[in-house]
Each structure stands twice: as structure tokens, then as C-alpha cells.
Amino acid sequence: MNLEKLQIHTPYLYYFCTIHNLKSILNLGILSRNSAIKDNLIQKNTDWSSSAVQEYRSKSNIEMSDGENKNIHDLVNVFFNPYNITIYKAQQNLVNYLNLNYEMNSVVLAISVARLQSSEKFKHFAFTDGNVGTRDDHHIKYNNLDDIHKLDWKTINKPWQKFDNYYDSKFLNYKSKKSSEFFINEPLEPSTIESILCTSEELKELLEMITDIPVLVSKTLKLYKNL
Fold first, then answer.
1. How many structural domains are present in the chain?
2. What pTM did the predictor assign?
3. How confident is the model over 100-113, as pLDDT tens digits?
4. Distance between CA atoms of 9 and 182, rounded to whole angstroms?
5. Cα(20)–Cα(114) distance, integer angstroms
6. Is 115 a residue whose pLDDT tops 70?
7. How many C-beta neighbours within 10 Å does residue 149 have?
8. 31, 93, 140, 197: which sits with the fewest CB atoms below 10 Å from its CB?
9. Could you give the dihedral angle defined by the CA atoms of residues 133, 135, 136 and 140, in that order, rounded to the nearest 10 degrees?
């Protein structure tokens, strides 16, 4: 499957995970939510996600590039940028739900689009303009890369932005567009991970002891301030 049209807009796709889940990812690759739950890789005391959002998402299907209709919880979902509302909420929930310091317990994986294209297991995909966690009228589903230019790349690629009003339509649109998604059949192989992004030098040192994948510290990933 030729991903050159996607590479025009971004060389990477991004996946948020906890340190707990990173260990299995380095061995097995990135699995769908349903497979991770089935294999006991996602447990209540390690799941940062909102149960209400996941319940809504569990009812969403998407047509893949081969025409097969699949539930999104049976797919791997990645983002077009590492600075979006979903990752902000993940960091916040690690603090508020699990009482964890997100700086020591979470990372963002940078998936190389070039490596993904050369992967023997990568065959089919779909993507959205807007986040599937929003209402149907706030996102559009695609499965042809001829449509990749239709995404709001200006919003997707702009730096993290603060708003005076987090309830008006301007923010709601930003929130959905910024968290537009790319869906892939599982598993997403560890070899497609080009780097691991974290927010502290301490975590970087720990990660470098368990993996040869380059680890980069990104202070701009501190979307949620753990006060």
C-alpha cells in the first residue's frame, strides 16, 4: 500500500501509551483495544481512558481500504501529531484516575510512515477528519489516500494552543480536528517505532536500559501540568 501521499503531510504517526503497556508493545507490537483487553494487557488499574468515551467508540465501525467494515476497537488507532486533546486527557487521567505521575508513567511512540509502508503486515487502513470520540456530524471517515488532503492539516500541525473558552464551538472543532485518527489492522510491529518521546530525563535514562529505540525528551509534550 503506497503511503507517499500521507508522507507529504507527516513523516510520523503517534501512539500514546503507559509504561505498563510499553513493555508488551516492545515484544508484541501495538494491538487493538479489544485484543489488549482479551490478553489482559489493559486492566482497570492501568486503564487511563474514559469508560464513557470507550463505550461510545465501541459502537463505531469504519470501512477499511479493502472494503471490509471493522469495529474501531478491533483496529490500532494512531494520531497525526503528538500534541492533541486525547493525549492531554490521557495525561490528566493518569493523575486524576490512577494517581500516577504522568511524566514517569507515559510516553508517545513516533511511528515512521516509511517503515510502516515497508512492513509486510501493513496492508489496509482508514482515517478520519475529526475524532471518532465525537458525534458523527463532527468527523468524516475515509479509506482512500486520495482524500488525505481533505483533513484540516493546518489545525493538525499547528503547535499546542490554549483557549479562553473551552466550551464554545471554536474549541470543540479544534479539539476534534487536532485528534483526527489513522486506523490500521493489528498488530503494528515494534520495528515501525522510530523513536519514543517522553517528558523527563529520568524516564529517558530508564527507557534506554530496556530498549535500543532512540528515546527523546520533549518538554512540549507536557500538555497537562501535574501540580
1. 1
2. 0.94
3. 999 999 999 999 99
4. 13
5. 27
6. yes
7. 10
8. 140
9. -60
Exposed/middle/buried for residue 213 (C-beta within 10 Å: 0-12, 13-18, 19+): middle
pLDDT digits (tens, 9 = 90+) for 188-218: 999 999 999 999 999 999 999 999 999 999 9
Range of the domain at 60: 4-221
Residue 227 lies in a domain: no
Which cell numbers in the block locate residue 102?
A: 504522568
Is residue 44 in some structural domain?
yes
* Separation CA 155–CA 134 (nearest Å): 17
Residue 52 CB-half CA count within 13 A = 1
Does residue 165 belong to any structural domain of this protein?
Answer: yes
Where do we find the cell 474549541? Answer: 171
Other C-beta atoms lying within 10 Å of the C-beta of residue 69: 9
Do residues 59 and 76 lie in contact, with contact meaning Cβ atoms separated by under 8 Å? no
Give a yes or no: residue 202 inside a domain: yes
pLDDT at 227: 36
